[in-house]
Amino acid sequence: MKCGLVAADGAVLHRETRPTPRADARDGGRAVLDALLETVVELSQKATAEGHHVRAIGVVVPGVIDAEHGTVGAENLEWTGTPVLAELKAAVGDGVPIVLAHDVRAGGYAELRHGALAGTTNSMFLPLGTGIAAAMIVDGSLVSGDGYAGELGHSKFIHGDAAELCACGQWGCLETVASAAALARRYAARTGRTVDGAREVMELLAAGDPDAAQVWHDALAALIDALVLYTTLVAPTRIAIGGGLVGAGETLLQPLREGVHARLTFQREPEIVAAVLGEEAGMLGAAQMAWDRAAADEEDRG
Ligand SMILES: [Zn+2]
C-alpha cells in the first residue's frame, strides 16, 4: 500500500509504503480491509498531530468499484461486494469526505493533471505491471463505465493453441503475455529457469537470449494489437505507458511506436510516451481526487 499526505498544491508532505496482508490466508479479505482502515486512521492522526487539517481522503483500490454503493469486488484482495466506503466512513467518522476510486484510473488522472497526459482531452494511461488495465480519457473525461471500464488487459489478443488461461477465467488475454508478471512466467515456462521478474527477462533480452527475445516479441505483438484497437475506437492523441515494464524505456516504446505506425491507415496516430509519475501515480491521483471533492463540497456550501 502506497500512501501519503498531500497538500492542496500537490506537494507530498509525507509518503510511506505499508505491506498488504496476504489475501489468500484465512479471512484474508478482512485483513486487507483492516490494514487499509488502520492506515487511513493513522495517517489522519499523523496529519492532525503535525498541525494539518485533513480536508478529504482519497482511497484507490483495484477491481470493480460500485460507486453508488461504495462496494468493491477485487479477486486478488478476496473482496466480493465488500462495503469499503461504509467501513472507511465508520472508521474516520463524519465530516471528512472520502473518495473511493480505481487505482489505475486514479493513476491516469494524476498523469492527466500533472504528468505525461497533461493537456490532452483524448488519451490513455496503460500501466504494464503485475496486471494490465487502462485509464481512458475520452473527450476530456476519465471514463469509469460504472466501475467496469478500461479492462484492456482482459481483451483477447492471443488465439488458438498459443492462448493461455488468464486469472479472469478467459483464454488469451493481453495480460497473459504482456504484463510484467507474464514475461517472467512465460520465460520460465519456455526454459525451465526461474527468473527474478521481468527485469531479469529484460537483462537476458539485452544479452541476446533467444527465449527472452521470443517472449518479448509475443508481448510487443499483443501490445501493438491492443494499442491499434484502442486508437481505432477512441482516437487518443497520446498514450502513456506506465508500470514496471516501462523501465525498459525505448526498448519498449520504440517498437510500439513503429508497430502502431505501420498498422494505422486512416486513424489519427497517437504519441506513445512513458508515464512520468511512476509508482506514486495512484497515490497522487487519489489525493488529487480528494482535493477535487473538497473543492466541490466547498462550492456547494457557497
Ligand atoms: Zn483475462
TrEMBL record:
<dbReference type="InterPro" id="IPR000600">
    <property type="entry name" value="ROK"/>
</dbReference>
<protein>
    <submittedName>
        <fullName>Glucokinase</fullName>
    </submittedName>
</protein>
<dbReference type="InterPro" id="IPR043129">
    <property type="entry name" value="ATPase_NBD"/>
</dbReference>
<dbReference type="Pfam" id="PF00480">
    <property type="entry name" value="ROK"/>
</dbReference>
<comment type="similarity">
    <text>Belongs to the ROK (NagC/XylR) family.</text>
</comment>
